[in-house]
Amino acid sequence: MTQKMHQVKSKVGNARDFFLIRQATQEDVPGIMDIMAEAVADQEHPDWFVSDDEAYVREHISEHGYTIVAQTVDGQTAGFFIVKYPEGEDNLGRYLDMEEEALGQVAVMDSAVVGSDYRGAGLQGRMLQAAEARIDKEKFHYLMCTIHPDNQFSRQNMESQGYEVKKITKCYGGLDRCILVKCL
Q: At 16, is the pLDDT very low, low, confident or very high (cuts 50, 70, 90)?
């Protein structure tokens, strides 16, 4: 993936108006964990976001998927987007009763967070586009994600990128979620 700076208007201005959107490395994990901790602390609705632990993030840098980060010019992590290659029972396609062959063609747009200083500038959408550009379209034909039904911002963001709600059900130990799908 070619790395280039993207101008995105942020709330803080100046050099932080530009972001490098790129694939994450293990060195990005501390910044990702900081953004995730901020999201958990910021949540007005705690059941809208399920955080991951550091081991999960490390596994999804390059092994069981990949992660995209948005980085400021001064090296700060502004946001991240984790893509998961699901295995076994954690495949969202099971909620839609997909055939076994189709389950192997599912990639999950798993977790996306933008730091509070950078929200409202379309950064989540830019990271999603970067994540989708990296998908192996020969192998994966279904991109899926979950969003709390009341989280209109995230839902509208994903729907504007071609994702459609296919089902509303309980996930992650009983939390309400919309299951969205985009067919490639």
A: very low
Measure the CA–CA gap between 40 and 122, rounded to whole angstroms: 20
Query: In sequence order, what are the residues at sequence separation of 6 or more whose Cβ sits closer than 8 angstroms to the Cβ of residue 28?
Result: 61, 67, 69, 71, 77, 80
Q: What is the DSSP string of 131-158?
A: HHHHS-TTT--EEEEEE-TT-HHHHHHH
The encoded tokens of residue 168 equal 């509303």
What tens digit of pLDDT does each residue of 67-112 get?
999 999 889 999 999 999 998 888 999 999 999 999 999 999 999 9
pLDDT digits (tens, 9 = 90+) for 114-128: 999 998 878 999 999
CA dihedral 54, 157, 108, 31 (to 10 degrees): -20
CA dist., res. 50 & res. 91, Å (int)? 16
- Rounded CA separation 49/153 (Å): 13
Q: Amino acid identity, residue 37?
A: A
